[in-house]
Amino acid sequence: MYPFIRTLLTLTRARKRPSIAVDDIGVMHFRAMPWDIDIFGEVNNGRQLTLFEQGRWDLAVRIGLMSLLKRKGWGLVVAGSSVRYRKRIRMFDPVECRTQCCAVDGRWFYMSQSFWVRGEPCSHALFRTAVTHRGKTLDGALVMDALGVHWNHPTPDWVLAWDRSDHERPWPPHPLPLEHT
Question: Does pTM top 0.90 for this prediction?
């Protein structure tokens, strides 16, 4: 089930925290709760994606994007993601979520997010996101102008490589011809 109460708490707490710049790293803390845990006693991959969303909500509020979205009637969408899981997150672990906008191009915003437990990295995700209006993605420069920000950071090579490889995947998806030996 989607964590509506946790989302409400995230948004409420983010409004009370200091504003940060669009290219800063947003840091928030939470504890892995029993409802986040799967049958193996850890936060599974699906729940981690949902918890990463909490970090993006926190960042969106603190950079002023949420108020802009509300004012303009805009929305947010995720158009792609890649996650690397390396260490288990167990029940009641204190988790630090780090979120940063690491690249902007055309219509896409690339969000780098990671979970840390006791100073150790557990997982890292890259999300391709966009701001939408009436079902269409908006140009990133338009969004940055509306935020009063000039983005002048180069896109990291690893983000470019992921983006290229993601665009090589066939769409619509179809079964792969498998050879039998």
Answer: yes
